[in-house]
Every structure is written in C-alpha cells, then in structure tokens.
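Fold sample X.
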Amino acid sequence: MTHIAVTTWSLEQTAPTDLLPASTPEGDVRIVRSEVPSPEFSRFLYASVGGDIRWTDRLGWSHARWREHLERPGVETWVAYDRGTPAGYVELEAQDDGVVEIVYFGLIPAFRGRRIGGHLLSYGTARAWDLADRWPGLAPTKRVWLHTCSKDGEHAMDNYQRRGFKLFDTKVEEEAEVANPGPWPGAYAD
C-alpha cells in the first residue's frame, strides 16, 4: 500500500468581526438550511462534494449512524443551490464551551470556479456565529474553527484566509493513499 504525506491546517475565528464576507455571486444562488435530518441527502452531499478529493471517513456510515449524527443538537447543514440544483454545502457542529466547527464545506465539482464557494463559506460562518440563536440551551459561539488539508481543492486555504480565518496549527501525517471514490463507484478515474 502506498502512503502519502498529508498536511492538515487548522484555522479559526475568535470573534464575529473576524468574518470577511465574500460578495454574492451573480445569478440565482440561494443558501437554505436543510432542517429535516435526511441521511440520504446528507450522504449525497458528502459523496458528491468530497468524491474527487478523497473524502472517505463517512462512506461506511450506516443509515442509523447518519441519522444519529444529523439529529444531534447544534448540527446543521446549509446547502447552496444554483438555479434550484444543489451546488455545495457547509456542515456545522456545536462543540463544548461555545465552540462551533465547520466540519465539512465544499462544492460539487461542476459548480467550482463560479464564486459560489466564498459566498457559501461566508454564509456558513455567519450561521456558525449565530448557531445558539437557533438551538436553545447551547452556549453562545465564542470560536469558529475548521481544518483543511493538502488533499482539498487548490483554492481552499486561500478562501478560508480571505474570509478571515487565521492559522493556529499545522500537522503532517502519513496516510494510506486511496483512490478517489467519486459520488458512486467509478465516477472518477484517477
């Protein structure tokens, strides 16, 4: 089995004023919260956005595991639509002491390069900052963080930094190299 070195960068915002919003893209782009927990829809988004950049950690999740995750207080999925078609998503997860992680963020490959990503990240980050407003009992957000890695899209780090995220940790680890799973087996050839 071949191994590759993967660099993971962790970034954060520590105040809502850290957010530097992107401009709204032209056209009919809308961002909507997926309020009804749907393992099928969430798995579709996960596989469609991450299939070409080797997101594999949730591919083996059962329907019950997806549902359990999605029904947790403070877990939200915000979906960008371009003319009614899902274009990408951001998943938020409340953690202890007012911390919110942007667990997943990205666009389906056909929608990249259309200025939707910066807008979606801006919107999702703003929703991380006001997460407690929608979830009684959660502590107000004090910190929003995320991680990206060298397997992610070439513009990921730049987008995060342009939105006001600051680097706070870098790690390099060896990982087994896996084929791009695509949204379904055989969708992408390496």
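Fold sample Y, listed below.
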Amino acid sequence: MESAIPEHLQTARTRHRRVGDDYAPPYPSFVARHRPSVTRVVMAYFGVQTRGAPLVAAEHALTRLASDFASADGPTHWDRASYLDEAGFTNVVTVAYWDDRQKFDRWFPAARERWTGDQRTNNGFGTFIEALYPSVEGYETLFSSLGRPEGVAVLADGMSGEVLEHAYWGGMRDRIPLSQTSEMTPSGSARAIRDGARIRIIPHDNLCLIRSGQDWGDTEAAERKMYLGDVEPVLREGMDFLRDQGRSIGCYANRYMTVVGPDGATTEKSYGMSWWKSLSALERWAESHPTHVRIFGAAMKYLSTLGPAAKLRLYHEVTVARTDEQLFEYVDCHPQTGMLNAVQTVDAA
C-alpha cells in the first residue's frame, strides 16, 4: 500500500491525516505520478458561450484553438466538453494541460489575445479563459481503475499502486501534499475589473477547483441501465443544486458537462467542474449536504451490487491555488458565468 503523496513531496507533518498507517481501504484506488522534475502544471479552460447551438463563427474559433494547440509549445493534452448553463446558454469548454510552465508562457500570449484580447473578433458569442498554474504540492488526483488516465493525469509518467488515503471523509485533503503542513485556508475576496471589453477576476487566495468525471463507455447492458437509471439522475440533481444554489454553501459556479470527441460527437463520458471558495467548503458539501449524501449512497449501492465486475470508471482532480496561480477573463459572457458569479460588482480598470 502506497501513500498518495509521492516520496519526494513528503515532509515532516504539522497536520496529521485522518487515518493511521493501519487503515485498510475497502476497495482499490490509484493516483497519477509525475516525474520528480515536474514541479508545476497548467490547467487552462477556454470557453465559448452562445445562445442556442454554437454559431459558425464560434465553431471557427474552436477550430482555430485546436490548431493553436498543435503549434510549438502547445499543450501535452486537451479535451472538450459542452453543457447548457443556468441561463440557457450553450457552453463549449476546452481544457488544456501543460507540465512545463515555460512552454505555456511562450504559447499563451498570442492565443490569449485572440480569445479574450484585442485581436478577438466579436461575432455575437462570449469567450472566457479560466486557468490555474498550481505547484504539484497543490493538487491531487484519484482513479478507480488503471489504464485510461483523464485530465491532468494524462501528463503523468504513470500511475501509483493502490493508495492508502481514500474511501474516508478527509481523504481528498490528505492526498494534497500541501496538507502536510497547511490548512489551505482562503483569504481575501474576489473582485472584478473591467479591462476594455474584457472583465478580469482578481481572485482570493486558496481558491479550490474540482473536476470529477465518469466514463461508462465500457459498461454492458445491465450495468449501463443501472448507472443511467439509478446513479446518473441523482448525480445530475446534485450538479444542478450546485449550479443553481451553490453560492449559499461556497460553490461559486458548477458545470456538469458531456465530453465531446474530436469530431464533435458526444461520448459516454461526463464530468462536473466547479469553483469553490475553499477546500473546506467542498468537503462540507461532500460530507454532509443531502444532495451529495444521495450521490454517495447511489454510488455505493451501485458499486456494492456489482463489486469487481463494475466497468464504470471514475476519477477526479482537486486543486487549491494561490492568488498568483490563477487567471480569469471573460468577454461578452452573462454574469453567472464561472467566477463572474463570485463577485457583486465590476470596477473600472
């Protein structure tokens, strides 16, 4: 049994994890392992927002973005997903990952200018960038099975063996290397500044992001029926609560998205991504809120019924980022979009 925190990131603890060394998880889970030389990653979400189906101009913007990704210093991995938001807008979100900050810094300025900057052509649709640049001490991953990494884990050198810190409340925090010495408490408050056509969010410290995904592509008829009939509706109910009422519990914004393939066709994959005031706020929802209690209950019933035969794949990544590890920019987006939802007013630059 391994620790989720790799040896080169382990340090003398001033905070203790919630379980002891003799804890035995009830089922196996795994984490991504980066090369020790990787010290920081980039997670950059590029969004297009339209009323109804994406406009031709928006489709062209997405095609151009994919072309930019293929250029020198582009991301090691990217994927795309879509969802209908609370205001009735279609959002197509492309998330790109780098494990070399210098490559990103060379690539990003030109792409940023075309996406949210002065070279952007406004053709009646919104665009946004939401990016984090966390150190490897500031995030964690978790996978229910091996063989198909998702998200930031695609950049990793490989996967761990079975890890200790999971299947208990507090495991998410215990897997983040910073938790060995830091409470990761938020400080300050987010504010918005208008910069020409662009609105920039200046965030507070220790903002939290979770991306949590499901892949039912390998399931056979009976399991697929069970997932889509018994689990997914409960998951959707929880995702809708966070989308519509999340601010009351510290969730600034939530998107429950369907992954789309390179040809634009929907896949049998989905993920929720949400911005939280703090890791603690996310933990409180997970541990005690009725919507997540129902999600957890439905998932446990499903997994206990199927046992090792379950083909459903689950994963997540959770990041806690300092103020200087965050960037948020929005152009022509409605005020409930992403971190715009975290502020009350927009100040002039």
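Sample Y note: DSSP finds six helices and 15 strands in the chain.
Also: The helical segments are 56-69, 101-115, 171-174, 221-245, 279-288, 290-306.
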